[in-house]
Amino acid sequence: MLNPKVYFILFALFINFSGNAQDLDLIQKLTQEIPSVQIVKLQSSDHFIAEYEIMIPQMIDHNDPKAGYFNQRIFLSHYNDNSPTLIVTEGYSARDVCYEIAKELKTNQIIVEYRYFGKSIPKSVDWKYLTNAQAMKDIHHIRDIFSNIYKNKNWISTGISKGGTTCLFYKAAYPKDVRIAIPYVGPMPNSPEDKRCDEHLLTIGSDECRSALINFQKRALDQRTQIIPKIDSMAIASKKLFSMGYDKVLEYSVLELSFSFWQYAHECSEIPESSTPDESFQYLSSISGFDFYSDATINQYKPAFFQFITENGYYGFLHEHLSNRIIALDKFDNSYFAPQDANLSFHPDYMNKAVKKLKRKKRILQIQGELDPWSACGLKLMGKDQYYFIKEGGSHSTRINSFNSEQQDKIWTIIKGWMI
Prior knowledge:
Helices cover about 40% and strands about 15% of the residues. With about 425 residues, it is of the alpha/beta class. The chain has two domains: about 5-190 and about 350-420, Alpha/Beta hydrolase fold, catalytic domain (Rossmann fold), CATH 3.40.50; about 195-335, no CATH class. Strands 1-2-3-5-4-6-7-8-9 form a nine-stranded mixed sheet, sandwiched between helices. The chain is globular and about 65 Å long.
């Protein structure tokens, strides 16, 4: 028997969408699979017939139900019971968008919000349960639920950035869950400060471009007394709090500049050769920005930095060339952005085991951008039925549709060939 909450959801959906029998059929299937599910109907888009925001109960600790439960958000975009299904492994909060793979292959789509982000946060946050092992079990549980609805064998996983890393971890942990894995710009760093990223920043582009960035960084720090009041005015106007202090905000933004510049393939010709304090402030705002260092944004991304430092790896800051201009920061890692009440020891075992497993898995196609520093620590799988496409001049925004038509045809031919 369905519980009262489910009856209410079904009744509300019936009143608002009684003209669509497929809606009600799908809702009934979901409530049979997940008796305590919470469902909100969304506006349909692209090729999808129906779209929903769904909250699914998950165990906080999949090894111990006594640890309690939380609701994990997914976005379900339904096309056809018999079509392939794309499962999007987010690394952060989720939003309802149609991915290019779903458009091209006319799939159903399930976007899984990562635990501890967005609406998928337990009432009591215990950092010891924020692990890749637990997160992969979240996704596997969702896959199990929907495998009883979508029975087509062609399940495909994808994800972008940290979500791309999640996609690779998921393929390693549950290789039978998906037939194909297509991670985008997903890094696999080997430490909290992967030196391969440093090497990339020291060698990518021309000598002139890298020198222009360094000269701008020095100039911006030399203009500290004029730029900091501008940061203060911005904070007041946006009503944002910067508890770390404006000196640190400026120094972090300057240190981040080179990574952000190459990550999104900005134009070398636009680096100011000379700039007033106002122009320096505007250029920093447009590349590395200041908002990230506000209390609100730090709190939003705290779970990610916990994982970067404890399991996923990350990058540090090139700072030696600015040592005589740095006055506020006494360390050059990202530990400031992680929860200070948690154990931040790095444990490489999960990453190492995943990499070892992935070298033996088939039907993995990776997308990377050449200029993106994350590509320096991408996992270059080149075995049987493994492909690594890197776009020349590409950035962290590189997608399949970023390539020329010939390369796009090659990529889609590989993917569609795996679905036969």
